[in-house]
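Thread title: Can someone regenerate the structure for this chain?

I was given the following input by a collaborator and told the matching structure tokens would be attached. They weren't. Posting the sequence so someone can regenerate them.
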Amino acid sequence: MSEDGNADQAAAGPADAGRGGAAQGDGAGAKPGLPPGFPSQTAPAYPYEETHDLRVGPDLHPSLLGLLPYVGVWRGWGKGGYPTIEDFDFAQEIRFSHDGRPFLYYESRSWLVDAARQPIRPAAREVGWWRPQVGPNGARDGDEIEVELAHPTGIMELYLGRMTGTQVELGTDAVLRSGSAKDVSAGHRLYGIVEGALLYAYDMTAMGQESSPHLSARLERVAG
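Best answer:
Regenerated them for you:
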């Protein structure tokens, strides 16, 4: 039932929508009409600011104060490997931003580089949200944190972990894979801010192997 109580309108299916479009202009190729109640003009730009610079934009949510050193844009170099592949070098950019709500938006993109650190091709990408546990008063409740990550390779991960100072340690609670994704079953990540740099190490359980080191990197702040 629709908000105005018109059950017939709410029950209209795709076929009805198509007939509605035809009524606006009979003939092959007629475009379907807009659903009732939708204005034809374009919506305005998204009105809420998101920032990786704590000097501008909304105030950081109180629950994120423990993650304040992470907010910004980071860029640096890393090394990767696994028992089933050859070792490799990569460059990486990570962005942590916020919009005043109790989570950080996280985006990472990396690219393979040669021995002279020249780019070879794009590599891993991932996006997600870092969510400290929030108490009734809106402040951080303890040191527990959730991190949800999505990858373009058909994998989604839920990490649970703890914050200790500027260190964040995470382990997978669940891994969801599509039918075409590689066999990744678990992960462990350790992040830290050390002498102003962002360092991390990632161990992975995949392809029938036990948990083994996969990625590590050191990134310097370039913005924020």
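Residues 1-26 have pLDDT under 50 and may be disordered.
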